[in-house]
Amino acid sequence: MLFDGKDLSQWRNFKGDGLSDKWVVEDGAIKLAGAGGGDILTRAKYRDFDLRLDWKIAEGGNSGIFVLADETGEHIYSHAPEIQILDNERHPDNKLDTHLSGSLYDMIASPAASHRIAGEWNRVRILLDQGRLTIWQNGVQTASVEIHGAEWKRLVAASKFAGWAGFAANESGHIGLQDHGDVVWFKNLKIKELKR
C-alpha cells in the first residue's frame, strides 16, 4: 500500500523532505486541496512494478502520474514519463488526443472507451516490466511501448520531449503525483515490485 486511506508518510514533496499541507486526506483519499501544494513523489524508488490506483479530477482540472521520476532536473516531469489526468471535456489542454486522460502524455493517445467524465473515479494500472511500459485506464489498455525501443524513439522525436536530455533515462525512479493547480483525488494506491 502506497496509501492506506489515512497515512501520507510514504509521500513527500519533490525536492523536499516534508509534505505540503495542501495535500490532505479526505474520505480515505489523498486530495490536493488547491494550487501551491507542489508535486509529490514516493519516498521509495521502483524499477519493475505493477502500480494500481484510482483518481478523480475536479471540473476543468488537470493532473498526472509520473513514473521513473528523479530530482536531478528542474521539474518532476524533466525526466519522467507522465500518464495524463484531465477533464477531457472542459480543460483547454484537450486539443490533442495524446493529452487526454489515460494517455502517455504527448506520445500515445488513449482510446475514448477508457474515458470518464470529471467527478467520476477512474481506475489506472501501470505496469513497467523489463522496460515495457503498459497502461490501462478503466479496464482499457491505453498504451504499451518498450522504453528506448524503436517505436519509443519515434514517439519521443515527434513529441515535446525530443530535446529533453535525460528524459526516461532512469532504470528506476519515484512514482509522482502532479500539482497542476487543480483539485484532484487519489485512492487505493498499491504497488507490487516485480522481483527477478
From TrEMBL:
Pfam entry (one): 3keto-disac_hyd
Protein name: DUF1080 domain-containing protein
InterPro entries, per the entry: AL/BT2_dom
Domain 3-keto-alpha-glucoside-1,2-lyase/3-keto-2-hydroxy-glucal hydratase span(s) in chain numbering: 2-192
Lineage: Bacteria, Pseudomonadati, Pseudomonadota, Gammaproteobacteria, Lysobacterales
